[in-house]
């Protein structure tokens, strides 16, 4: 059966029509970013790709192609043995590699020869990425948002989780970015995804939402850790209605101690993160915080950080960047309990349903 090609813009719209999406690139290329839901069937793995690339440069293209074809044939055979033998005749895979050339073409040709209806993304991942960047703008602006605002430790992320548990549409940017979005927000042992991967995750979430229902989102800045929030999404967020989440200071400090247990378990790590604030707060202040952490007064330091550093910075930023914050709907939590958060989420969901877009 002949192999069909599909422009990347078409693949953006028709992604759900395919039974399996296959990324024929190497493991490292796939890890950096890939089409949402794609399985990795490397035609050349990481080491093999380096070997063949070196042959291209140091020997010649003809010798490299011969060696590459032999390796690719073995790898494709293994993929078919492992993944394809039980597939029915009407199985419809979508296949791509970096530019839609040799690696995906070889796999697609063999699958097509078997009799499957195979489609190649024209231009490969490179074209897909360009189409996704363009469509991110469309996806960001086709939704209406409810922006959860509130100072550090007020429970914004917990409220988003409570809303999601009750069936609300939630875009958790910090969850997708694997970062808590402040200078102290790095999670030890957890790497952030690449910028391209983050963009893909945001796009995939946005395209799954119903534009007739609101999307709840936290009042993020332009960056979450090292990752940039797509500009179109920032614009849409900052023009949206706001929710002013409020929690007593002592409860905020206790909540942060629960959400950042590594600061208690590893005081050295906490002190290292505090030192990143030296330029902003001054050496004497930071040294005082470090001394208190080492004396076991971590919660006192957290409370002082909230009042003297985070709160003034957040108040200035939120008023400057979110046009509707002055008219924000108050959402007052008596405490940080699950019951309080569930009650608030229920109230916000009902209110959003009543007010509409």
What sequence of helices (H) and strands (E) makes up the elements? EHEHEHHEHEHEHEHHEEEHEHHHHHHEH
Distance between the termini: 47 Å
Beta-strand share of residues: 5-15%
| CATH architecture grouping of the largest domain | 3-Layer(aba) Sandwich
State the share of residues found in helices, binned by percent: 55-70%
- Helical stretch count? 17
Q: Kindly name the structural category.
A: alpha/beta
Mean pLDDT level: 94
Rounded radius of gyration (Å): 25 Å
Question: What is the CATH topology of the largest domain?
Answer: Rossmann fold
How would you sum up the major sheet? 5 strands, parallel
CATH class of the largest domain reads Alpha Beta
Record the strand order, biggest sheet. 1-5-4-2-3
* Uncertain segments: none
What coarse outline follows from CA principal-axis ratios?
globular
Tally of DSSP β-strands: 12
Architecture overview:
With 357 residues, the chain is α/β, with parallel strands linked by helices. It has two domains: 4-133, Oxidized Rhodanese, domain 1 (3-Layer(aba) Sandwich); 142-355, Rossmann fold, CATH 3.40.50. It has 17 helices and twelve strands. It has helices spanning 8-14, 27-32, 46-58, 61-84, 102-114, 124-141, 156-165, 173-177, 195-208, 231-238, 249-259, 261-265, 267-274, 278-281, 283-294, 298-321, 338-355; strands spanning 4-7, 20-23, 39-40, 93-96, 119-122, 145-149, 169-171, 215-218, 223-224, 227-228, 242-246, 329-332. The strands form three sheets. A five-stranded parallel beta sheet has the order 1-5-4-2-3. It has a five-stranded parallel beta sheet with strand order 7-8-6-11-12, sandwiched between helices. A hairpin with a 2-residue loop joins strand 9 and strand 10. Helix 4 packs across helix 5 (102-114), helix 6 packs across helix 9 and helix 11 crosses helix 16 (298-321). It starts with a strand and ends with a helix.
């Amino acid at each position: 059966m002949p192999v069909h090609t599909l422009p990347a813009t078409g693949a953006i719209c028709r992604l759900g029509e395919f039974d399996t999406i296959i990324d024929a690139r190497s493991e490292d290329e796939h890890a950096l970013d890939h089409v949402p839901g794609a399985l990795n069937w490397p035609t050349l793995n990481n080491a093999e790709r380096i070997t063949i690339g070196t042959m291209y440069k140091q020997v010649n293209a003809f010798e490299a192609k011969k060696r590459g074809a032999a390796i690719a044939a073995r790898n494709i055979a293994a993929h078919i043995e492992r993944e394809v033998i039980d597939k029915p005749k009407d199985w419809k895979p979508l296949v791509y590699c970096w530019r839609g050339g040799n690696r995906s073409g070889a796999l697609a040709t063999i699958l097509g020869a078997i009799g499957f209806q195979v489609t190649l993304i024209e231009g490969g991942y490179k074209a897909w990425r360009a189409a996704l960047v363009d469509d991110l703008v469309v996806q960001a602006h086709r939704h209406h948002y409810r922006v959860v605002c509130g100072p550090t430790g007020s429970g914004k992320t917990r409220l988003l989780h409570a809303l999601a548990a009750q069936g609300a549409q939630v875009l958790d940017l910090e969850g997708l970015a694997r970062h808590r979005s402040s200078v102290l927000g790095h999670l030890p042992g957890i790497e952030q995804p690449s910028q391209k991967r983050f963009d893909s995750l945001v796009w995939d979430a946005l395209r799954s939402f119903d534009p007739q229902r609101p999307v709840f989102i936290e009042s993020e800045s332009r960056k979450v850790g090292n990752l940039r929030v797509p500009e179109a999404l920032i614009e849409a967020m900052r023009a949206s209605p706001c929710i002013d989440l409020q929690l007593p200071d002592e409860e905020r400090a206790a909540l942060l101690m629960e959400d950042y247990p590594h600061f208690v378990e590893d005081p050295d790590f906490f002190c290292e993160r505090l030192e990143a604030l030296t330029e902003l707060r001054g050496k004497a202040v930071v040294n005082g915080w470090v001394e208190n952490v080492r004396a076991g007064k971590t919660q006192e330091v957290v409370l002082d950080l909230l009042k003297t550093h985070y709160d003034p910075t957040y108040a200035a930023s939120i008023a400057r960047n979110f046009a509707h914050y002055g008219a924000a709907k108050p959402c007052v939590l008596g405490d940080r309990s699950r019951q309080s958060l569930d009650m608030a989420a229920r109230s916000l969901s009902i209110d959003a349903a009543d007010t509409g877009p």
